[in-house]
Please model this.
Amino acid sequence: MKTKNSDDTDDQDKDRHFVTALARGLQILRCFSHQQPELSATKIVRMTGLPQPTVWRLCHTLQEAGFLICPGDGRKMALGIPVLALGYATLVRQTLAQIALPYMRSLTDS
Model:
């Protein structure tokens, strides 16, 4: 799931407004999916290619902010409710037709 390529890195190094720590935190949040709703820090390290201490610090910060939670025995993390609020804020801007269009197209293309 490594999302950076060398061109992106070069552009980001030149962009003084780019916040690398924020981008890395968002990269961690993108690791979670329907297929992988709970992840260990070790798995996140493998998926992102970020150093383990960086992943630990970012996950700790995301936990303190409520964006990650530790359900069960605390060995794995999952997305917290604030992530849902962000998704909802995006969805309310969409009309039903915009949301349904890709699915409708896939049905007609079959």
Notes: The chain has six helices and three strands.
